[in-house]
Amino acid sequence: MAVPFSNTKLRVPRGFQNLLEGLAKEVLRNQPDNINAFAAIYFDNLLKIRAEQGIDPAEIGAKHEDRFYNNKAFSKAGNMGDVSDPQQQQAATTIQAAVRGQQVREEAKEDTPVEDAAKEDEAATRIQAAYRGYEARKRVNLLKDEDDDGKERTEAQAEEEEEIDIDLNDPEVEKAATKIQASFRGFQTRKTMKDKDVSSFN
Length: 202
Description:
This protein is about 75% helix and about 0% strand.
């Protein structure tokens, strides 16, 4: 069956193009699995906004389309751009807060691995410093005891006293050792990467 030729040009209803463009942008942004359900929720939200705030994207889109078909629309002053309107101020504040919140969340996602690595390095450094301080204090006490007593100790006794009784099966010790090892490996990797960068420039 042939379709009769027609010279008539069909137009999309006023404001409908704006609604579809808004839906298309949200679908591309959110990438939903079920587009039909997403579209239903999207249009329900638009209806709620229209009922609560009186903002109708279809009407706004129709006014924008009128710019191209009827330039007299520009001469009429409407409250579309009225910055003193409390509803528009509230809407602008809500949009700005949402955008800023999204930016903060994105920055937090980007900064998390670097901050965690820095915290682990700092924790490992503190553990190492505490252990070195403990060893140094122990040696100083041993030297003082030797001077005070005037007795010479055998090497076997000195080795027994220097031994530290650390439970290697303790989960806390394992965590600390893992952090120290990870910190050292990170240091080694950064050092080799830095050396490679320097050698690649030469």
